[in-house]
Design brief:
eight-stranded mixed sheet; globular; alpha/beta; Metallo-beta-lactamase, Chain A; 14 helices; 39% helix
Length: 357
């Protein structure tokens, strides 16, 4: 009798599974419709507490990394949305995290290496099509930003015409397309104010990324919360100065130990030029241990390592990447990956972490 009941139960389960399999298309369609409606109708910024919020839209370097796209940091200061650098996954990851690129109020570029700007054209396009903005977005950067921005505007000029002709100016306002370059100068002895209003102040400062010049980092202050983005640099006294006592330091990091493995691999493959390239790039970046030293000397609360190089495809490699940092810096250290989010509510000292992927 028990065997008979078991057989009937298994048969019923089999029929249920078969029925679900046959109905997979309509079920999936119903779920997709619901998700699309929820996604397009959501406004994550509305639900964030007042403060600074940092979402990683690109934590990597030019090296392919499944967990980390090209450099991009989304910063929300109150109800303002800013983007710092625009690597190749910027627009897609901002959308994937649920944020609306049409709400971007400003873009800030640290320097003009390709991996920091190669997603700028698509980001400008997505800002234009995601919300009927009547004005282009300002793009801030040191001397040279005009060349970069105007180059992208020229490259997208035909596409702009196609889309306005297809959708009409009421849907895609022609005058809202693109960007306005905002160039600023630099001073070695102090930071330069590049954006300011009642509650927000963004300053730029020079960093050491020779022979790339100019190269800058940024300090972002919203009410009583403060963060610094280092940009690409060797260990810099300017970063330490601007990061003094801040809540969050977002600092680039490259492991020389792990880069050695790539050099050796290129040597064994007899790829001489690639081997030399791998040797060259370590001399204008900062190791995780050096970043930890800066964070310790500056007395910051939280160190987020980004522009992570080389890629870390295996969990154990993160431990190798961070080796020795905990002895140097006693605060919280995190190796960034795409989708990571840090929230710094105004009027508090806490930093809340999550991932939006």
């Amino acid at each position: 009798m028990r065997m008979k009941k078991t057989a009937i139960t298994l048969m019923a389960l089999g029929l249920l599974v078969a029925g679900l399999y046959l109905a997979r298309a309509p079920i999936s369609l119903a779920i997709a419709k619901r998700v699309a409606a929820q996604r397009l109708g959501s406004d994550p910024m509305r639900d964030l507490p007042d403060g600074l919020h940092v979402a990683v839209c690109g934590a990597g370097s030019p090296m392919p990394d499944d967990k980390r796209g090209g450099p991009c940091t989304l910063v929300m200061a109150g109800k303002q949305m800013f983007v710092f650098d625009s690597g190749n996954t910027s627009a897609r990851n901002i959308n994937k995290m649920g944020f609306n690129a049409g709400l971007i109020d400003g873009i800030f570029i640290t320097h003009f290496h390709s991996d920091h700007i190669d997603g700028l054209g698509e980001l400008l396009l997505q800002r234009w099509v995601s919300k009927p903005n009547s004005e282009p977005v300002p793009v801030y950067g040191p001397e040279g930003i005009d060349t970069v921005v105007n180059g992208f505007l020229q490259a997208y000029s035909l596409d702009r015409g196609y889309r306005v002709a297809h959708h009409g100016d009421a849907v895609l306002p022609n005058k809202g397309f693109g960007a306005i370059p905002k160039s600023f100068g630099l001073q070695d002895d102090k930071a330069t104010v590049v954006f300011e209003n009642a509650d927000t102040r963004i300053t730029a400062f020079s960093v050491s990324h020779a022979p790339i010049h100019p190269a800058v980092g940024y300090q972002i202050r919203y009410k009583d919360r403060v963060m610094v983005i280092s940009g690409d640099t060797t260990p810099s006294a300017h970063v330490q100065r601007e990061a003094q006592g801040v809540d969050l330091l977002v600092h680039e990091a490259m492991s020389t130990e792990l880069m050695t493995f790539l050099q050796e691999g290129a040597h064994e493959a007899k790829r001489d030029k690639l081997e030399q390239l791998m040797k060259d790039i370590v001399n204008y970046h900062t190791t995780p241990q050096e970043a930890a030293t800066i964070a310790s000397k500056a007395n910051v609360n939280f160190l987020l390592l980004n522009h992570v190089a080389p890629p870390l495809p295996l969990p154990g490699l993160v431990d190798v990447f961070l080796k020795g940092t905990a002895e140097i810096f006693k605060g919280k250290i995190q190796v960034a990956k795409d989708g990571d989010m840090l929230s710094l509510p105004a009027g508090q000292k806490v930093i809340q972490t999550s991932n939006r992927f």
